[in-house]
């Protein structure tokens, strides 16, 4: 039994190493959230077993939990580098598949079709507004900037205010609000499913997204000209890496010891 107990320990240590390695590899990934492994002990026994004689038979992985603590602020100066200063998520929708994603990576840009997107054809979602910035609907839609305004003046630039208003400026000096950024919130964000590129999708564990306007409640303000860095603490991860390595070595040593004992028993002479 000791072989399998230590084997479980080896597998758990390997999982821990994999998670820590993933965290370290993404230390410079914008909007990345670190994860940690959680384990539980396994005990063998029945209702008739003397509680003083019950022994453990190893450990098992219970979950890999995401940590959504806010990362450091990196000033960039680019108007479409955005950050949620709070607990909310940007919402994007794939222009190819129509899938909805949630992200803390606010590195957006304007493409040739006037869409504010993340470089992977995922378009930023906003609440529709009138030209003055008053919200006219509660269903998020694509953030689209017209190349010319109603007077025929050409597009000159884009700014995003703290309240989430996306404002387009035109050559004739006029400004038009093209939408207000829709910020998503979840009752259990740790239940979101990672799909890569600092994107998540909702699950039955996370619950469905609740949308709100920036600056209201838990949704957080919008910071323009800044990005949220990864919340990975390299020093903490390196300590965890050393610990996981020692755990792996200790379990390997336990298997080696059990093997030596088994060999000794086999070699006994009567």
The share of residues in extended strands comes to 25-35%
Envelope shape:
elongated
Q: Which regions are unreliable across 5 or more consecutive residues at pLDDT < 50?
A: none
- Count of extended strands: 20
Output mean pLDDT: 93
Give me some keywords for this one.
cell projection, 21% helix, alpha+beta, 2 helices, 270 residues, FlgE/F/G-like, eleven-stranded antiparallel beta sheet, cilium, three-stranded antiparallel beta sheet, 2 domains
Description:
- This protein is an alpha+beta fold.
- It folds into two domains: 2-69 and 233-266, no CATH class; 73-228, no CATH class.
- Helix content is 21%, strand content 34%.
- It has two helices and 20 strands.
- It has helices spanning 2-25, 234-266; strands at 35-44, 55-66, 73-75, 81-85, 89-94, 100-103, 106-107, 109-110, 116-117, 122-127, 141-142, 155-160, 165-170, 175-181, 183-185, 193-196, 199-201, 210-212, 221-224, 226-228.
- The strands form five sheets. Strands 5, 6, 10, 11, 12, 13, 14, 15, 16, 17 and 18 form an eleven-stranded antiparallel β-sheet that branches. A three-stranded antiparallel β-sheet has the order 7-4-19, with no helix packed on it.
- A hairpin with a 4-residue loop joins strand 12 and strand 13.
- Helix 1 runs antiparallel to helix 2 (234-266).
- The mean pLDDT is 93.
